[in-house]
Design brief:
The complex is a heterodimer of chains A (117) and B (115).
Chain A: E1 5-7, E2 10-13, E3 19-24, E4 31-37, E5 43-50, E6 53-56, E7 65-68, E8 75-79, E9 88-95, E10 107-108, E11 112-116
Parallel strand pairs in A: 2-11
Antiparallel strand pairs in A: 1-3, 3-8, 4-5, 4-9, 5-6, 7-8, 9-10, 9-11
Chain B: E1 4-7, E2 10-14, E3 19-25, E4 32-38, E5 45-51, E6 56-59, E7 62-67, E8 72-77, E9 86-95, E10 101-105, E11 109-114
Parallel strand pairs in B: 2-11
Antiparallel strand pairs in B: 1-3, 3-8, 4-5, 4-9, 6-7, 7-8, 9-10, 9-11
The chains are: A mainly beta (117), B mainly beta (115).
Amino acid sequence: NAGVMQNPRHLVRRRGQEARLRCSPMKGHSHVYWYRQLPEEGLKFMVYLQKENIIDESGMPKERFSAEFPKEGPSILRIQQVVRGDSAAYFCASSLSPHGRGGEKLFFGSGTQLSVL
Amino acid sequence: GENVEQHPSTLSVQEGDSAVIKCTYSDSASNYFPWYKQELGKGPQLIIDIRSNVGEKKDQRIAVTLNKTAKHFSLHITETQPEDSAVYFCAAIGYSGAGSYQLTFGKGTKLSVIP
């Protein structure tokens, strides 16, 4: 019973390049969340997706960042024209049901450490 | 939106002693409070969660207490072991303002258990 799978584990990009981070949710989960973690900081919500739909992207920077969760295949977080400030750990999580007011258990992947040179 | 404060940021205890980590939240409507453990180089792992209809929940050496009136909740680890050393995050559910509910995390507590 595989958990949330993220790849790559480490990604090095030069300024101006594109970064593509992939996430496969736990089997049976159709709700995916992306979080960013800076050193010595907690996790910051970026975006919440269901299959083929972006539900809430209120935590995502307005420019250069995009996310998708296609009908087939993993969810992708895409960062265009990366800058040094994008260096961080990016975590994906999935849940069986959506968060309501009562909350839902989130299961996290091992993350992708993005380093921008 | 929700704001979660977590204390202390670092905590060292002797093996066998207890450890307590405290969090406060701002949104009185929040009613789901999970705790995550993150080991070096790994993703956060859910260790225990509590909903507002209970004041305490226990799972072996781990317990969480919730005081809704004061808007704070705490993680208690008894009989600590070296493998408990990790960063612990609290979180609270809150309305994102954009159509969904999302978790807001504290900044974490680095727990070191000294053998």
